[in-house]
Amino acid sequence: MSAQTIDDLPTPALILDRAILNRNLKRMSDRLRDAGVMLRPHLKTAKSIEIGRRAVEGHDGRITVSTLAEARYFAEGGFTDILYGVGVVPSKLPAIAELRRQGINLRMVTDNLAVAQAVAAAATGRFWPQSGQSAGGETFSVLIEIDSGGGRAGLPYPELPGLLDIARVLHKAPGVELAGVMTHAGHSYHHNTPDGIAAVAEQERQAIVGAAEKLRANGIPCPIVSAGSTPTAMHSRDFTGITEMRPGVYVFNDLDQAFIGSCSAGDLALSVLASVIGHYPHRNQVLVDAGALALSKDISAQEFKPQVGYGTIVDAPAQDMAVIACSQEHGFVGANEPIPFGNLPVGSRVRILPNHACITAAAYDRYYVVDSELDGGKSVVDVYDRINGW
Ligand SMILES: Cc1ncc(COP(=O)(O)O)c(C=O)c1O
To answer: Are 333 and 313 in contact (CB under 8 A)?
Structure first.
């Protein structure tokens, strides 16, 4: 790659600090290894083979994805134990079967009896009428999704309605492996103290271990007990009974993770490089060429600090400088004191820290990699590609 600095890059551009990335990866990997839990990183955040390979170092290579496009991309990159972590539907079984025929142990999740029956039917070669296709005599690996309190997908704990019915269909079907149970404590994001997050982590643990024990008590094996979000992986005080954790956003971290205490302010590896495109002193604002598409309109970080808007400015020349409004390609940057416009001439560049790294990164097809430990992050030392879409 020809020598480049971030001043040569087109804007907006996605900048990844390799030094911070490596620290984030090591912290989580060491923490889970020391706890005796396997790491199955959720690569929906990074969507990058290069980052995925580094993330699983010291573990056994298992990963999580959120789309079939990611599953195909990581399979091509050499990953062979892949959990597709979004509830499956019968129409996706042929695509899953195709990857499994290539030797990829692509596992899926469901909390639905009709889907479990469809998987069983496809495995035994019977036609599934609603999908219009037959996967035909395939093998499948399924985890049952449990709701540990987040209120998104999964059978709600402790009632676990229908758990045994779904489990028996999968367990009895020839060609189907009931691999275990999984949950994601998304509600951990609404706490900003270690104790608060640790309490959610314990709730997550009890729910998923409770579901596994219910299966085992009924003679159904449950080898994988899978949990995790970044906050619960960082703050859990007891992993007993959990076999693997699936944090994702920890690879980069973001303003939301910093505010809730999953990481420190210095642990944010991702930023958006933008150009200043206008000065508006009468309203104390500059415009940048990073708007809603380049940053996303995710407001998760506003829950604990409303003034972050859609992202904050790195090394800002005024207090609380942030993108306070967005149109498609314009970001409106304001501050809590007069902006020294001379410090930010039109054409100069700023870096913006994202509220939610996973969503911001989704607009880009590559990371421009810098290294703050080499030269303060000025040179572009590498470029990593990403997979987007479905
Ligand atoms: C099913 C599932 N597992 C794991 C994760 C990773 O959690 P986090 O983004 O907090 O790292 C997510 C994130 O949305 C998820 O949906």
So the answer is: yes
Would the pLDDT of 133 be above 80?
no
CATH code at 265-385: 2.40.37.20
Segments of the chain assigned to CATH 3.20.20.10: 35-250
What pLDDT sits at residue 271?
Answer: 98
Atom of ligand 1 nearest to the CA of 232: 10
- Locate CATH 2.40.37.20 in the chain: 265-385
Can you read off the two tokens belonging to residue 184? 């994601």
CA of 40 to the centre of ligand 1 (A): 11
- The CATH homologous superfamily to which domain 35-250 belongs is Alanine racemase (3.20.20.10)
The atom number, within ligand 1, closest to the CA of 85 reads 1
Residue 283 reports pLDDT greater than 50: yes
Helix residue ranges, H only, the chain:
18-34, 49-55, 68-76, 93-101, 113-123, 163-172, 194-217, 230-235, 255-260, 292-295, 357-361, 372-375
Would you state the pLDDT for residue 132?
Answer: 47
Cα–Cα dist 285/333, whole Å: 5
Q: What is the pTM of this model?
A: 0.95
pLDDT per residue as tens digits for the range 213-260: 999 999 999 999 999 999 999 999 999 999 999 999 999 999 999 999
